[in-house]
Amino acid sequence: MVIQNKDAVAEVPLALVSNPYLDELTAGLRARPIPWEGYQRATLITQTELNYIKAVEKKTGEDLSRVVDNEGPVYADLFVSLLQKLVRVDTIQSILILIDDLLLDHEERATYFLDLAKKDPSLPYAPLLKCLRSEDDFVPLKASKILTTILCASPKPSTEAAEELFRWTTAQLQSNNPAVVDLAVQVLESVLRQRAVRPIYWNSPHAMDALVKILKTEAPTPQMQYQVIYCFWILTFDTEIAQELNRRYDVIPPLVEIAKSAIKEKVIRVIISTLRNLVEKAPEANLAAMAAVKLLTFTENLSTRKWSDGEILEDVNYLKAELEENFQTLTTFEVYQAELLSGRLIWSPPHQSDLFWTKNWRELKKENYALLRILARLLSTASDPVVLSVAANDIGQYVKRDPSSKKFLQELGVKQRIMELMSHPDQDVRYNSVNASWSLIGGSGRV
Amino acid sequence: MSFNKALNDEEVFSEMRKMVAFIKQEALEKAREIKVKADEEFNIEKAKLVRQEAINIDAAFQRKVKQADVQRRIAQSNNINKSRMTLLLTRQQMLDDLFAESRTQLLTVTKDPTRYEKFLSDSILQAFFRLLESEVTIQYRKADKALIDKLLPDVKARYLEATKQAIDVQFLDDHLPADGAGGVIVAGNGGRTKCNNTPEARLAILEEDMLPLVRDMLFGQSPNRRFFN
Q: From which residue to which does the signal peptide run (chain B) (predicted)?
């Protein structure tokens, strides 16, 4: 029984995909006539099917509702079976348009499609997934939009359909056409609302990479930033994802960077919400990394600004409180380790503090020199002079406390590298590598 | 949109539509964020409630199981007690029947003259030995008077031989009931010490002392018994 409340605000639609490019294509195709009668004569479709099509063709809104509301299931069955049996691209396009019109503003009609599973478990997804693989420009895009609505409306969305849809979106995210990328991200925004598909997306090969790449390398528009980060936000509601997200994809630093320079409030809003989720669901994994990028200072800054949205302040204050509380307990070493693991070495206090090194040098030795190796790798692979300088400095500091490791470092090729760096164009790099090599050779004190 | 020329209606409407669409989009995005957050919080809360209730149900169930167990044990204990009681009552009944039967048998035994004569003389002597008094009184069945008169001299002689002491016997007028099994009650020390040597009294002693043997003959040993010495 549905309780009607006439004063209630309209419900937020499950699937929110509004893409002008797609709309343009749709409009163009809508205008084109399809010879349904011809198909009927060629017995590709039956007379009954023809009548039904004629009844809904070109109708939208109220007109469409009048025709469809009594026979929703029939239309769902009709469209899906037509998709299955017809092959001509133009007919497929038209049927997709008809389905989309059916679902527009009436997402509840998606249940008619979901009910088809009772007669055939592969429906309604199979023919739509087939459309995703089509070579045509329009068909996969339109099919993805319909799939989104259906997946969002399903109480138990099909995992195979979701997997295939994500494979498709991952490919689209790398398209050259920004409108296509935009559509793909919007599809994700809607589908990821289904809790069950989040781990599927997380485990889908290259799916996360594709999203992260947009943020890091492609200089996206604020709207695109918002959309991508929104996807991250939804994903972080899943605890496992919250634990692994930063570890695997190192998203905290770029998120904070974007937040610092963002103009649109909603971008900051969604970034802060994501950071909040990371802290709430997986503090041990994320607090150290946040401390490393000086998030606490930034939140203090944010809390003084004037926001039109009250909830941003709530989230900012939460972050601030958590960071402050843990600031004391976060040993400097954890911050150092987070910095090291992220590869973003900067001149933070630990690097040059004698006290720090005396206290903590053993940590780099742990687990078969795990951290020392990372340091060595950064030394070899980094191109940023700051990182090189800091890495060189750290090697020097370490080896001063642990002279027995010199042989090991030589085997790693660190000594060689430091020598090479002594002729690096950057002055700081040269200075620090000279000092480090001095320690490596066995001299005492700094030059 | 240039500010130099006035906008015509169409352009105004077009701009307005764009603005409306933009505002709507922004609003929908925010509304969606709120909805998503609410859904997640609902789920967390629901999971918490479900978990709590599951724990409660488990606890209530454990309590019920324990209760049922306790009641089962009480019932079991009651049943064991009841059956023990029945067993004891039945055995007691059997013993009572046995002793009642024995008492009736007593009367027939004492009808045999030769045996009764021997018994009477031995029982009088036994009573004398028990009391070890010099002066005693004797109670008897009226019908036994003649018999006792006949036997008494011999008894006294045997007593004298055994104890080197004479004994004086007074006959009491208070006779034993005629329907009894006979025997004598000998009293000494001014009537204060009595030795009741009637078959009834002897049977009564036997009923007590022979219980272990009787038990064994009737019911066998207790299955849990470990010591037999």
A: none
